[in-house]
Fold this protein.
Amino acid sequence: MPTLSSLTQSLSQLASSENLRLLWNVLRHAPGGGVLMGQLIGNMAPYTGSIRPEVLSLEPGYVRVRMRDRRAVRNHLRSVHAIALMNLGEVATGLAVLSSLTGGMRGIITHLEMDYLKKARGPISAECHAPATTPGERKEYDVQADLTDAAGEVVARARARWLIGPAMH
């Protein structure tokens, strides 16, 4: 079984779908594994780490991730800030897309938009299903993440376009 040190060494390679799935397969069984997975993602992408995401579920083409409601992500109205919600939407769409890629492929976000449907309070979860990608093909994919509150009500909806293609070496 890999050690935390060896998993951390894989951090620079985390964006590869193989390593993403390997890390999750180890961490999902560990106490606090979802929080640790979020910290690793946050170390790779520091701004993403600002919302302290917690991975709840990760499968090829699917993710569910949560952020706690805390002062650092709130606005002056005492609800979760619009940009914190957008950050969570980007994390969800990115993890769903990246977890579906085959070897030698990579993705980059080219468009992100949000609809804010109601004030977001309490822990917010984002869920995203990504379409299967075609190995070796450079193509844009549109994905959507629904952000829900603890009552299961959709508070925001993220729509992202990811450009997928062969990794350049």
